[in-house]
């Protein structure tokens, strides 16, 4: 706090918010671990010295207690841990309501020994004498009937035990009654099953523009576009003539992705996908700047060699050709596909462009190799 | 960096310091091209605006930038759209600088991994940063050698968190050499077998509280997983800007 102690209005155990030296206010509980408490307002700093719920979420206590709950050492351990991590805040008095001393004592007596087995200590900040006796003048918290022993981050075994949620259907038997490995079908867990791999994904991941199933089934059949349209990654529909024209028409710009590729066996023949069809690039007006642009746009560095590949007779007539746009150099900052155009005639020379790219200099250190200092002993 | 040592000037020319206003150094970052750097998404929480930030390269001593340092403003910050703050997944951002850096012996880009290229478990790599050393914050860039840990083994250290394919683990069970607060966004790099070339495989992301009792390895954003996305963002912001 800016002052050694909080302003008088924070008398008692009103907490002082060190971020701005004022009395803290109640805030909604957002720590997933403690979202099933009989209260939903807390205030920081908490009883373990954490300054925010985010700090609590990455604290070692937020890993320690849920792991300890799995041992079943004390029925209300998770409840007690949450009264420390997210202490109750009374919305009227803005006072923090701590756990009762008996709750702290019971938890410590029953679980501290378990911790010592694994060489860990009970959290120092939770000395029970700081908490009020239950039934005294000062308000304090005791578990009411129906308080859940498990947190929302746990899976509750049929036997009542709590195991960490990530152990549910992980192929290992964690519950004493093995119930964590039962009913592991996707639908039984309100998940969606990838048809081919049988992997389970959240329903919210379907048609969200990101492939989560190995064969991308979760992003298939998400939209029905008209015949003359193609679907963007985010499932919008864009007219095929606008595809790979060098300007974004899909709001996620996916109509301009993967327009240029170096294909065929040598991995160097330039192919451009324009207006939803595949084209070869006629070598007649090609130049070195366009070779550099090709490698840079593909993130492949710089051109190491450029050649013109002559087509076998008979094949060239069936190909679709793109030609270098007469104003190709006036379109600064544009992608390669914006600098090429279709023409009514085929490619006079029947020669295609082939570009080999090589990674630019990277990862080299000129200074500071790990040299061992030679020092006489 | 816990358990590390002071690095020699120019030893890690891709390391950069992401700085904001009065705070000075906030996170690490990594130069991958003359106008592009990588860092982690959680560095920008609450400070998403590009004009709040600058990137300083060629630094060894935070307090004395020196003649080799170069400072650039940030033109745009591209946070991964699936960044999940609660479980710290997809923790990566691409940073576009407002102008190109000049490549020198002290400022150079690191290599990005090839598709599918991953460091092998139990191989040794390096982490660097100006983050907490366990007892104090350093001025000089620190370096530490860490061992790559397989995902199943890493999961065993973190009961409460899911280690996803977007993550990479490195360090030691005792946590003796580890990254810490202030190192976030900095590099985990491995030298290629044929020597001489360093590749970026990880960005410092999270771990147990590095000076607490519960130790264990550090968790890094798995750059190999994101390389196609990184290249796509660079392409979009270079050739498709409105």
Question: Short description, anyone?
Answer:
By secondary structure, chain A is an alpha+beta fold. Chain A has helices at residues 53-57, 61-69, 77-85, 101-117, 288-297; strands at residues 16-17, 22-23, 27-28, 41-42, 88-89, 96-97, 154-156, 162-164, 192-193, 200-201, 229-231, 237-239, 260-263, 269-274, 277-281, 302-310, 321-324, 340-342, 351-358. In chain A, helix 2 (61-69) packs antiparallel against helix 3.
**How much of the residues of chain B is beta strand, in percent?**
25-35%
For the biggest β-sheet of chain B, the strand order reads 8-9-10-13-12-11
Q: Kindly, what is the distance between the CA atoms of the first and last residues of chain B, rounded to a whole number of angstroms? A: 41 Å
SSE order of chain A: EEEEHHHEEHEEEEEEEEEHEEEE
Q: Greatest chain-chain interface?
A: A-B, 39 and 48 residues
User: N-to-C SSE series of chain B?
Assistant: EEEEEEEEEHEEEEH
Global outline of chain A: elongated
Largest sheet data of chain A: 5 strands, mixed
Number of strands of chain B: 13
Shape field of chain B: globular
Description:
The complex is a heterodimer of chains A (about 375) and B (about 240). With about 375 residues, chain A is α+β, with helices and mostly antiparallel strands. Chain A contains five helices and 19 strands. In chain A, the strands form eight sheets. Chain A has a five-stranded mixed β-sheet with strand order 13-14-15-17-18, with no helix packed on it. In chain A, strands 1-2 form a two-stranded antiparallel ribbon. In chain A, a hairpin with a 5-residue loop joins strand 13 and strand 14. Chain A is elongated, with a radius of gyration of 33 Å. Chain B is mainly beta. Helices cover about 10% and strands about 35% of the residues of chain B. Chain B contains two helices and 13 strands; from the N terminus they run E-E-E-E-E-E-E-E-E-H-E-E-E-E-H. Chain B has a six-stranded antiparallel barrel.
SSE layout and pairing:
The complex is a heterodimer of chains A (377) and B (242).
Chain A: E1 16-17, E2 22-23, E3 27-28, E4 41-42, H1 53-57, H2 61-69, H3 77-85, E5 88-89, E6 96-97, H4 101-117, E7 154-156, E8 162-164, E9 192-193, E10 200-201, E11 229-231, E12 237-239, E13 260-263, E14 269-274, E15 277-281, H5 288-297, E16 302-310, E17 321-324, E18 340-342, E19 351-358
Parallel strand pairs in A: 15-17
Antiparallel strand pairs in A: 1-2, 3-4, 5-6, 7-8, 9-10, 11-12, 13-14, 14-15, 16-19, 17-18
Helix pairs in contact in A: 2-3
Chain B: E1 5-6, E2 15-20, E3 24-33, E4 36-39, E5 53-57, E6 70-79, E7 93-97, E8 124-129, E9 142-149, H1 151-155, E10 167-171, E11 187-191, E12 198-207, E13 218-222, H2 223-239
Antiparallel strand pairs in B: 1-9, 2-3, 2-5, 3-4, 4-7, 5-6, 6-7, 8-9, 8-11, 9-10, 10-13, 11-12, 12-13
